[in-house]
Amino acid sequence: MLRDPDIRTADPPADASRDAPVLREGETCWTIARADRFAVIVDAADYFAQAKAAMLKARRSILLIGWDFDLRIRLTPDDADGGEVRLGDFLRSLVRQRPELRIYILKWDMAVLYTMRVQSLPMLLTDGVTWRRIHLRFDSTHPATSAHHQKIVVIDDAIAFCGGIDMTEHRWDTRGHCPGDSHRLDPEGEAYGPWHDSAAAVDGEAARALGDLARRRWRFATGQNLPPPEPNPDAWPDALAPQFRGVDVGIARTMPAYEGRDAAREIEALYLAAIRSARRLIYIESQFFASASIADALLAQIERPDGPEIVVVNPLRGESWLEEKTMDAARALQVGQLRRADRNGRFRIYYPVNEAGDPIYVHSKVLAVDDRLLRIGSSNVNNRSMGFDSECDLAIEPAEDEQRAAIAGIRNRLLAEHLDRPETEIASAIDDGGSAIAAVERLCRRQGRRLVPLPIRDLNAVEEAVVVSRIADPEHAAGPESVVQHVAKRLVLRHPLAVGAGLLSLTAAAWLLARQGSAARR
Questions:
Q1: Is 157 left (phi over 0), alpha (psi -120 to 50) or beta?
Q2: Residue 346: Cβ-neighbour burial (10 angstroms; 0-12, 13-18, 19+)
Q3: Smallest Cα–Cα separation from 289: which of 374, 341, 350, 343?
Q4: Are 35 and 236 in contact (CB under 8 A)?
Q5: At a CB cut-off of 8 Å and minimum separation 6, what does 432 contact?
Q6: Distance CA 9, CA 112 (A)
């Protein structure tokens, strides 16, 4: 793999054995806490509905911690439950009905500029009740150009949601990802494309631990201490069926060091330990595939004679020009190297399409290793999520056969959604042939909802230099000026004729980062 000697990746865990426990407090997770119920929720139509149902049961406290919140979005397509459908209206109605309830919203300060609109504040400052009981803050306590990327909702410390789904525009979609779904509209009434995402819900000690984590983040961002709420035994949504009961949950974080706050890199350690533990199948859903350390760990498994199969589901391409030039280029580099090393046909990377052949954007962040471990959270397979942005993931590693079978069932349910086949057919195809890759390729339809092999192109010299510089995918804070110098040095030494061709794109990217950094410092 191409490795920059000046950029450090996480050291391997002290015990990298396949048989060693993956979840280890203080190493691969921040803490391990018991959940009486653990549920995986796929796609935002179900997530928004379940989060709304849980918030309807709130008594004292709702903590909303995230990359972005758009209070204009619809939580449900209609008012079939008899309540408000838009997030802002719904939250205001809750505090009006319950004088003891307080709602705390913490969003990344740069998300306001990223979405190019300020839409939250005017919706909250409409009356005295809202002003006193709904508290909105913009979090700027992070290194320049890094992002607060955690997505956590905690209700009375009785139930907590954690995953990849932001309560913002362009997220709502059903598991069918139907072409032209009339409900898939942004707040301005503009249609957007199909979107795949995931989250998890927990209760018990795990919910209380996530509440503590959310309050710590609020305190660091605002200086205010929020006391734990009084117990609420009845916040779990009636319609949310848990796949696991009585399971230990590892909570893993990424946090960059900042103004006295220590760095945390448990998520990277969790990924690496989980990948090393695999025997038969590693299944990954992620928005990106650009992490150098994770690619190295997967490469080591590919090179093992008895290594597992690896199935990755990604979006076809990035959402923006900068993502295509950086993240997609990094993915091309990593995938190309893995494919060249894959002499036994054990690595595949796909993107999903719906019945019309429209690419489904993958925002989900899931890792399933055999039937041993399930991880779901906010972190992507990129360098930023390993050390530069704030992230929060949940992982379970059950020992009971029934719960381990449930992990395989969740993985099969995700594949069933992508392949538009019954879950039982997916399970039978994998069990009968002993190969998930063979099952996927046999069940893929030529038409209809399916998985398509991801096309990967060769990189030119400039693109490769940008990837290695990690200008948009760093592991730690670095100024745009030093990044430009680093890339220029590599180009001059290795490809002097490419310098002129690359200056324009590098300067543009550095200018964008510099603007973000100055805005964050303000």
A1: left
A2: buried
A3: 350
A4: no
A5: none
A6: 31
Sign of CA dihedral 101, 107, 112, 114: negative
Instruction: Print burial letters for 186-222: b (CB count within 10 Å at least 16), e (below 16).
Output: bbeeeeeebbbbbbbbbbbbbbbbbbbbbbebbebbb
**Res. 124: pLDDT tops 60:** no
Return the structure tokens found at 306: 């008895």
In the chain the domains, ranked by start, together with CATH numbers, are 39-238 (3.30.870.10), 274-453 (3.30.870.10), 461-521 (no CATH)
List, for residues 167-225, the tens digit of each pLDDT value: 999 999 999 999 999 999 999 899 999 999 999 999 999 999 999 999 999 999 999 99
pTM of the model: 0.86
pLDDT at 4: 34
| 107, amino acid identity | K
Q: How many CA atoms lie within 13 Å of 397's alpha carbon, on the beta-carbon side?
A: 19
Nearest Cα neighbor of 63 from 266, 242, 209, 263 is: 209
Q: CB within 8 A of 374, min separation 6: which ones?
A: 40, 366, 367, 368, 395, 396, 407, 410, 411
Cβ neighbors of 459 (< 8 A, separation 6 or more) are 329, 332, 333, 336, 467
Asked if residue 109 lies in contact with residue 121, where contact means CB atoms within 8 angstroms, the answer is no
Element housing 393 (H / E): strand 391-396
135-to-153, 218, 471 alpha-carbon distances in Å: 15, 11, 35
CA distances from 140 to 66, 241, 433, 471 (A): 13, 37, 51, 21
Q: In whole angstroms, what is the distance from residue 60 CA to residue 450 CA? A: 44
